[in-house]
Amino acid sequence: LRVEALEQLQxxxxxxxxxxxxxxxxxxxxxxxxxxxGMGALSAEERPVIGQVGNEVRAAIEAVIAEKQEGFDRxxxxxRLQAETIDVTLPGKEVGTGSVHPLNKVAQExxxxxxxxxxxxxxxPEVETDYFNFEALNLPKNHPARDMQDSFYITDEIxxxxxxxxxxxxxxxxxxxxxxxxxxxxxxxxxxxxxDATHSFMFHQIEGLVIGPNIxxxxxxxxxxxxxxEMYGPQMQIRLRPSFFPFTEPSAEVDVTCAQCGGSGxxxxxxxxxxxxxxxxxxxxxxxxxxxxxPNEVTGFAFGMGVExxxxxxxxIDDIRHFYGNDTKxxxxxxxx
Length: 337
Ligand code: PHE
What we know:
It is elongated, with a radius of gyration of 42 Å. It has helices spanning 2-10, 15-26, 31-37, 46-83, 102-116, 130-133, 166-175, 217-232, 285-290, 307-315, 328-331; strands spanning 120-121, 127-129, 158-160, 181-190, 202-212, 238-245, 248-257, 274-283, 299-306. Helices cover 39% and strands 19% of the residues. It is built from eleven helices and nine strands. The strands form two sheets. Strands 1-4-5-9-8-7-6 form a seven-stranded mixed sheet. A two-stranded antiparallel ribbon has the order 2-3. It binds phenylalanine (PHE). Phenylalanine binds at residues 163, 165, 207, 245, 248, 279-281, 302-304.
């Protein structure tokens, strides 16, 4: 048995068959175990002799098994180390560095210009109540001007804000009647438009609001001229065209010199020499009242501009959808600007 077992053990090729042999000889029903178990039938003289031989055989088999097992373990470890080897001298994969999104960049530029004029930044929620978005801005229910801004309603009274003007009311209320108010309010706005080259269901606005004793339309005009010249260059001019917003009176739309032709007229400005950039006006007395101010004591101006529009003009981009496509070929153009 011993010779046979040792012979078989020498020829074993892997850990699994080694275990099979261990069971075959030393297991509970193994060949050697059977022999040792049969010793009760032997005579008193035979028992110690056979017992000793049996134990020797078991020790011999166990020793070989242990030795073999160790060999297999070592081989397995060596194999794993080989397989998991990392070549630390390989050059690494380059991780591209991101850049500031052109819309964020332009928004920051706009903010910086107004901060330079003493404004602070105010923010409001994108999910807004009908009261702040419309009602307090002198747009009562069923007012036809609500059609100008097709809205995403969540309930009858809650909607995604259609402009940043509700932050005017929130700011006034937070100021508790104190003056001066001098804020800009950047943020996302939402309208039920079909997306195309110039429309997006979501875009960005920056609102401006100034309130104090004796704020006049000339203050508004001077502020906007200063902004435009810092943004687009000192040669730029603006013009105000009469317009209508329920929350300002009088209201105006502001055009800036067409950067493409310098004002002489081209396709981009439809041969007018001017490009529209924002809406503005003197804060309507009813809006001041909703904000907790007495329109007999203070006046104010407000304006609202689309960040996309300012950016399209600044960088001569032909389609608003470029801003939302996450195409790194487009975005990388602004990385070093
Ligand atoms: N809220 C207006 C719009 O989204 C813009 C605006 C703001 C006009 C402030 C006047 C005063 O079209």
